[in-house]
Design brief:
The chain is mainly α. It is 61% helix and 0% strand. It has helices at residues 2-7, 10-22, 30-41, 51-61, 64-73, 78-96, 126-140. Helix 5 (64-73) crosses helix 6 (78-96). The radius of gyration is 16 Å and the shape is globular. The relative contact order is 0.15.
Length: 141
Amino acid sequence: MEFERKYYTGHVRFQKKVELLILRQGTMRIPEYEAKFSELARFAPELLETEVDKMFHFERGMDPELVIHVRACRCSTLDEMVEQATRLEDAMVAARGSAPKRGRDDSVQSQPQSGGTSDPDIPLPFSYCCTLWCISLFILH
């Protein structure tokens, strides 16, 4: 963390925290998503103080199809969750014969993976609104 404080400005650290909050798996496989999550997590240790915090934020960005199955595994650590999610994803890919279709080819998306819309008359999903609320807390502090 000392390296980040010394070589990254406050603005850059803030941007990385925001990236972490809006990070979505998108078309990435679980190992890629975990690597990006870990890279950004260095900039937000106050958000990821416990294993439960880490698991919550990691799960929030995962493919919803995987989340349902990973929750059933009742993982107790992020490493265990990543391992289970990787196994499940590999099994899903093998069953389908190709990677699951997940939308755009971005890891950080401006709209939520599922249920998102650019139509201003259609409300955003609750989880996306919570993410925006969290981001606004950082801006106000």
